[in-house]
Amino acid sequence: xxxxxxGEGAPLTSRRDAALLLRVxxxxxxxxxxxxxxxxxxxxxxxxHYVLPAPSRIAHTMVADWPLLFASLLQTLKTTFLGLxxxxxxxxxxxxxxxxxxxxxxxxxxxxxxxxxTPVVAxxxxxxxxxxQETAVLTCAWIVAFFPILSNTTLGLRSVDRxxxxxxxxxxxxxxRCAPPWLGRLISRVKxxxxxxxxxxxxxxxxxxxxxxxxxxxxxxxxxxxxxSAGAGSGLAYRxxxxxxxxxxPRLFAALALLSLTGVVIFLVMSGISHLLLRRWHESALxxxx
Amino acid sequence: MRANGxxxxxxxxxxxxxxxxxxxxxxxxxxxxxxxSALAGLDLDIGRDEFVSLLxxxxxxxxxxxxxxxGLIAPSRGxxxxxxxxxDTDHRGEIGxxxxxxxxxxxxxxxxxxxxxxxxxGVSRKAARETIQSCLSxxxxxxxxxxxxxxxxxxxxxxxxxxxxxSLRPKLLLMDEPFAALDEITRFRLNDDILRLQxxxxxxxxxxxxxxxxxVYLSTRIVVMAARPGxxxxxxxxxxxxxxxxxxxxxxxxxxxxxxxxxxxxxxxxQDEHL
Lengths: 290, 275
Description:
Shape of chain A: flat
Number of helices of chain A: 10
Distance between the termini of chain B: 20 Å
Structural class of chain A: mainly alpha
Radius of gyration of chain B: 19 Å
Order of helices and strands of chain B: HEEEHEHEHHHEHEHEEH
Largest interface: A-B, 28 and 32 residues
Oligomer: heterodimer
Largest sheet of chain A: none
Number of helices of chain B: 9
Number of strands of chain B: 9
Strand content of chain B: 15-25%
Distance between the termini of chain A: 15 Å
Strand order of the largest sheet of chain B: 5-6-7-3-8-9
C-alpha cells in the first residue's frame, strides 16, 4: 500500500521520460561525434595504425582477436570479483569486530590504514616474490578494495541515532536469569548490532562498495602489469603490455576498451544494487517527487 | 506568596492526589562527569494512574529525572524505589519511553517500528500482529502500517513513536517533551489524544514539558522544578475532572491554575537568577 499516489499522471511522466531520454542521448551523441572525428582524422592525415589506429580498425581487431581477448577478460573479471568478495568479507567482518571491541579497534585499525596508504604498485613486486602469481594479483585487488569497505562500514556502524540505542537498551536488555552479566551485555550488543547498527550502516557500506568495485579492478590491473613484466599472465592488463611490446596498437586499444567497459559495468551494477536496497527509505535513493 | 513558601509547605499542596505510589525517586542527586550538578536531593512520588508533568526552565534536570526513572542513567546518590520491589532492570518491560524526536528507524515501515520492542522481547511477528494493529488504531494510524517514516508528517511520526511505546502495554509511560517540536495545532490534537489514550489504556504518565498551558491541560499534578541544581520547588495538584476537552481551556479554574503555575515557574527562574 502506498500512502501518496503519484496522482499528477501523464504530463509529469512524459516530462520525466523526456529528461531521461536527454540524459542518455546527449552522451551517446557526443561519443558518436568523437569517434567520427577520430576516424576522419586518421584517414585524412594517413596516421599509421601502430601510432593511432582508426576506430574501425580497433573494432575489427576486437572481432578478430575476440577468443584471446575474451579469455583475458574472464581472467581479469575473476581476479576483480574474487578480490572484491574477499574485501567485502574481510572489510565487513573487521568492521563488525571493531564495533564490538575497542581493544580490537585500537590494535588493528592503524595497520589497516598503513595497508591502504602504501601504494599498491610498490607492494606488488614483493608479493610476486613471496606468492604464486595468481595469488599475488588477487591479493593486490583485495588490498585496494578492502579499505573503503572497512572504513565506510565502520563509520556506518557508529552512526546510529543515540536515542534509538537508548530505546534498545530500555527494551532489549533483559537481565539474564541464569547467565553471567557479561553474557547479557554481549547478547544485547549483538542484538543492537543486528537490528540497529547493521541497517543503519547499509547505505555507508554500499557507498564503500561502489568505490571498492572500481578499486578492485584497478588493483587487478596494477598487479597484472607488475606481473606481466615479470613473465607469465593472461589478464587484460597483461594483453595491453604484450600488445605494446609487439606494437600491436589496435589490440592494445581493444583491450583498453574492454577494461573501461568492465569498469563501467561494475559501477552500474553497484549503483543498481545500492538503489534496490535503499529505494524505500534512504534519502540518497529517493526521487525528487516523494 | 506560594512560590516563595518553603518546600515542605508546598508539598502539602499535592496532598490532593491519594493514589498509591508505584515508583519514587528518593533523595536523588545526579552529577555528570563534567561536574555539572543536574539534580540535588530530588524526591518524587509517582502514583498509580497519575499524569505528572515535570515543568521547569532548561537545565533544571527534568529530562535527567526521567532518564533516571527509566533506568537509562544511574543516580549519583539516592535511589529509584519501586513499590512492588525489584530494580529498574526488573521493570524495564513495564516502561514506555517517548523522546522529543520521533526516533524511528528510517529503514523500517510503521508496523515494524511498532514491532521493535516486542521483537526485542522475543515475540514472534505473528503473535505480535494484533498488538501492533491495536496500538496503531489507538493513535489513529491503522491505514499507515506499511508506510515508511519519511512518508509521514511530524505529528504522524510522533504518533508512531507513541504507538511503539504502548506496544509493550507499559504501566508507566515516560515522555520527554514529546510535542515540543510540533506546531500548536498538532500539539493540541495530540494533547487530547494522549489524554484519551491514558483513559482507554490505563497507564501512569510522567511528562516533561516547557509549556505551562500544556502541563495544566494534561496533568493531575504539576511538579515545578528550578535549575542549578535541579530540584522541586512546588507541586500543584490539578483536580479538574477528566475527560478534559477544549472547553476546559476556557474555564476560570484553568486560568487560575495557569496563573499559579506561571507564578511558580517564574519563582523558580527568579531563584535561579539569585544564585
